[in-house]
């Protein structure tokens, strides 16, 4: 009997891939791009490789979703609105506008010097 117990103690269970921590939890709000549409008509997005089904979403759509359920291998979410523009691109646009203004001022200054 003791020999059987020892054998059981030494057997390690293999780690299953779906037991890793999930990148989303119920109630999270995330912005995703719908990569494809599933057989049931739900949009399919991924967050860190983790599949999320979004009811009523179309392929190519950028949406903000709220996670409604998380299973072992996938999650479901609902659309709550359109995705906002990334903050980095807004900052880049502003800096480009400032750069354009500075270039225009430099050209005006050069034009004035060459005339005089």
Write a concise keyword list for the protein shown above.
116 residues, OB fold (Dihydrolipoamide Acetyltransferase, E2P), 2 helices, 30% strand
Question: How would you name the oligomeric state of the polypeptide chains in this document?
Answer: single chain
Low-confidence stretches: 87-96
Span between termini: 106 Å
Number of domains: 2
- Output the CATH homologous superfamily of the largest domain: Nucleic acid-binding proteins
CATH class of the largest domain: Mainly Beta
Elements, N to C (H/E): HEEEEEEH
Backbone CA Rg = 27 Å
Helical/strand content category: alpha+beta
Across the major sheet, the strand order is: 1-5-6-4-3-2
The CATH topology of the largest domain: OB fold (Dihydrolipoamide Acetyltransferase, E2P)
DSSP, total strands: 6
Shape: globular
Helical content, roughly?
A: 25-40%
Q: Count up the helices.
A: 2
Main sheet overview: 6 strands, mixed
Bin the strand percentage: 25-35%
Task: Provide the residue-averaged pLDDT.
Answer: 76
Level-2 CATH architecture of the largest domain: Beta Barrel
Write a structural description:
The longest helix has 29 residues, at 87-115. The relative contact order is 0.14. With 116 residues, the protein is α+β, with helices and mostly antiparallel strands. The chain has helices at residues 2-10, 87-115; strands at residues 29-33, 36-37, 43-47, 50-54, 62-70, 74-82. It has a six-stranded mixed β-sheet with strand order 1-5-6-4-3-2, with no helix packed on it. Residues 87-96 have low confidence and may be disordered. It is built from two helices and six strands; from the N terminus they run αββββββα. The protein is globular. The termini are far apart. It folds into two domains: 18-84, Nucleic acid-binding proteins (OB fold (Dihydrolipoamide Acetyltransferase, E2P)), CATH 2.40.50; 85-116.
């Amino acid at each position: 009997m003791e020999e059987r117990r020892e054998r059981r103690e030494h057997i390690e269970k293999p780690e299953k891939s779906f037991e890793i921590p999930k990148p989303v939890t119920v109630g999270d709000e995330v912005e995703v791009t719908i990569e494809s549409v599933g057989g049931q008509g739900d949009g399919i997005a991924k967050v860190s490789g983790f599949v999320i089904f979004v009811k009523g979403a179309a392929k190519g759509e950028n949406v903000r979703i709220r996670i409604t359920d998380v299973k072992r291998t996938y999650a479901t979410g609902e659309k709550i609105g359109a995705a906002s523009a990334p903050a980095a691109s807004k900052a880049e646009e502003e800096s480009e506008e400032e750069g354009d203004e500075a270039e225009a001022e430099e050209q005006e200054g050069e034009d004035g010097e060459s005339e005089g």
